[in-house]
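#lab-general

N.A. 3:47 PM
ok so I finally got the sequence cleaned up, no stray characters, all 298 residues accounted for. can someone with queue access submit it? mine expired

B.Y. 3:52 PM
send it over

N.A. 3:53 PM
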Amino acid sequence: MDDTLIREVTIQRTFDAPRDAVWAAWTDGEQLERWFMPHGFTVPECTVDPRPGGRLHLRVRGPDGAEMSNDGLFEEVDPPQRLVMTTTAFEGRLEVRNTITFEDADGGTELTLHAQVVKAAPDLAAALAGMEEGWLQSFEKLDAVLTGGEVDIMSRAVVASRLLDAPRQAVWAAYTDPEQLERWWAPPGHTIETQQIDVRPGGIWRSTLRGPHGEFEQRITYLTLQEPQVLAYLYGDPDQPGHAFTLVELAEQGGKTTVTVTIHFSSAEERRGMVEHGAQAGLEGALDRVAAYVSEHR
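B.Y. 4:20 PM
back already:
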């Protein structure tokens, strides 16, 4: 496997539900259909046989209406404390071994997921970079299933929006053209030097940000590019704290463009810490800079 591909993801979450209920949500087909995919995806069909050697089959429908199969094989089934299953997707080109443990936690359940990539085609770098975020979104849906509440998509996010005085295609170019990125990305008093940039799904932008307080290495892994309306990327090193899933949405409005940027951190606790260290202010500042840039160069 290519060294740039993400190989492992570990996520720990505590759910406000007893362990038997959380276990059932993983092994009952009707419940799996309600949560076992990220936001925007549905599961019209699910069959599950939760025993060693038993199989899992899901027919998954994406936001664009396209359908695909996700299949799995149960290796270990030890209710209600340990579940090991291998899942395959992308017509067998991706295989992941998932180990899920369930522990009692003050009336709730502490769940730990460890997903280890067994096999992945090189062109799946974007899917793997988004694997953690996909599970985090699924867990938001799982929490709603277990509590009977609404899906909370903002508990670990910061968001900001601007109306830019430029057509959407020009704003898209500002976010995706390497030369233009370097003209507005760096905050005032800083410079940016690009070592590598490949603006495509799975491509990486590595750069060095220099300012009054020293140097900072930046890494962005591009996940989705739907020109000219949606750009998604993973900011930061996925193996280090502070990495975040970023969604940039561009909406045309009478020759101008509304830009909405949502940054999702790995947990609500991490979001609080990042906001205390200026995440919201940093996001607002970035929108101010891109607004000034496109207005000047329209």
